[in-house]
User: Fold these one by one.
Assistant:
Number 1:
Amino acid sequence: MNHNIGLAYRARKVTVGTELTLTKLRNGQVFLMILATDASDLTKKKVRDKGNFYKIEVMETLTSLDISQAIGKKDIKVIGITDRGFSQLLMNEKRK
């Protein structure tokens, strides 16, 4: 999964950070959100609530370290996938 997140990031199909991801979500540009399992309770609530409201899946299977390493940044809690193909690929991978 981390490999495909890295591919999506290099293809510029990823928003990084809670606020940017939620802004893009409001504009209908995010198809999947990935939330770190070790994010704060406030961040988790905010992201889950927005995901429910906009009917977008929120994946919570990776830690902040996993997400950060996948995209080559530090201390990332939330990313959004802005491409339908990549979001399907990641959701299918999660179900395996």
Number 2:
Amino acid sequence: MEALGINFGFLLMQIFNFLLIFWLLRTFLWKGLINTIDERRAEIEKGLEDARIAADARENAEKEAENIRAEARSEAQKIIAEAHSRAEESAKEVTKEAEQEAETIRAEARQQAEQEREQLLADMRSQVISLAIAAANRLIGKSLDEKKQKEIVSDFFSKAPENVKNIGEEIEVVSALPLSDTEKNKVKDATGASKIDYKVDPSLLGGLIIRAGDRVVDGSVRSSLNAMRTELN
């Protein structure tokens, strides 16, 4: 060994020192280092697993959030559609009510105008009767008693045409001037109707037109004059 330049005692000392250092490292340092490495590896693995779980949770949360947003948008659209529908229904209802109210006002106005017209004609009746009686007196050259005068004028304006007995249960009677209660009773007796709707048309001049469904009996003075005009022509 010495021929090779190696000191055997020094070599043994180096080997002993190496083994001693190896034992010390293995006993006091290596095990702790390995444990530290294992703990660190466990921590890293746990961190990676936690990160994976967090990523999955975040992805699930984003999906859930997107579902919630989609449901919210759908619900909002539904609410808006329902609001539009309710608004349209309300508008239609308001329009319908306005039309009904306008029609009611028009009907009331027509009725009031008709009542005022009939009242005006009723107020004029006495003047028309006076003029008719005066003209009749001049024609026949003598005066008639008051009762006879009233009968003649009443017949002129309210006498029912021939062949109207039992013409119908519900009829319409048109006269040139509003009829008195007495004249209406005569018309009812002459026709036998249970329900009579009275209307006024001054263009009739006198007499009555009686309608029962499709049947019309025209006993007006206007109709008689038209017939005379046709015959003369």
Number 3:
Amino acid sequence: MTDRMAGKIALITGGAQGLGEATARMLMREGAWVAVTDVNADGVRKVADSLNAIRPGSAIALSHDVTREEDWHRVVGEVERVFGGLHVLVNNAGVSLAKNVEEVTLEEWRRVHAIDLDGVFLGCKISIPLIERTVKAGGPGGSIVNISSISGIIAGHNMAAYNSAKAAVRHLSKSVALHCARKGQGIRSNSIHPVFVATPILDHHVQRFGKEEAYAKLGRQVPLGRIAEPDDIAYAVLYLASDESKFVTGAELKVDGGISAM
């Protein structure tokens, strides 16, 4: 590893598994201190313990419901207390739902938007003041990385709520980027748009077809012929979180194996 995140403090939501866990491991290996959060308190604690076994003191685990404003205030306050500031926010926590507009209930619609969109809004709103203070105290520049989806750009007939929420994350990221630039806060904001990734979000496909066949079926929809691995996305986060992307804001990074080029 190359210490691309040396000196930076990162907060990663949905860190108990999947993309959040892969991102936490990637940023820690590159020198960051990381706070990993999740509603799955036991799961995220195991992730933090495994990171600290590699680099003692590099990680903390926090129980966190991203839909609750009071949870965000508590988590951001704890990050400041333990690490002294914040440079990078990775809004990764999310859920999927495969239902069309007639099938999805209002309760399901609201739940998907609460987690996938409201959680991102709250994260940006509540984290920005701490990131700004940290940057202006003389640290490296700040970065917000919002995990959207290629489904936020390409619609599916049976993904009404998910399409809506992830498309909104894409545009919210741009609004946040322009706001932070206008105020001179030293904070960039970008979104990442993965295609299918080998994480628990695909469990419903795996349960239906078996892992090998499920991944193969999804991979046949992708020009590169396979689904993504978690590190494929984590490397994209690493770029946007690091100072290598210091002139990149308001952008969307598609990590989709070419599917959006079709």
